[in-house]
Task: inverse folding
């Protein structure tokens, strides 16, 4: 299998997982851009990009690289003023959903 297979199959997953945001073509563009951005940091051992409900990570060691696509489930936001907010990227998690936005009561 090739990088093209990786992008194609991941784009199909994204279009099924988040049809409100992605069709296959849009997902392919997003993935291609993310990979391009990660590869610009060619000598950095670890870097990542996030977009919508996903995280893409690149690990680089001894000339070999690995790109990992992951789905965000939930997030805790630690602010400089010591307030904390939480969101979910999956409705199965009993936290405020990311597209609902964060209100002041979501922060402690």
Result:
């Amino acid at each position: 299998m090739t990088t093209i297979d990786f992008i194609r199959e991941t784009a199909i997953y994204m279009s099924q997982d988040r049809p409100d945001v992605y069709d296959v073509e849009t997902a392919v563009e997003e993935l291609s851009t993310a990979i391009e951005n990660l590869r610009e940091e060619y000598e950095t051992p670890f870097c990542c990009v996030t977009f919508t409900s996903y995280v893409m990570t690149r690990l680089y060691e001894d000339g070999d690289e690995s790109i990992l696509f992951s789905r965000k489930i939930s997030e805790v936001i630690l602010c400089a003023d010591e307030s904390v907010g939480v969101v979910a990227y999956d409705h199965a998690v009993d936290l405020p959903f990311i597209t609902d936005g964060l209100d002041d009561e979501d922060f402690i």
Summary: The longest strand covers residues 54-61. Residues 74-106 form one domain. The longest helix spans residues 24-39.
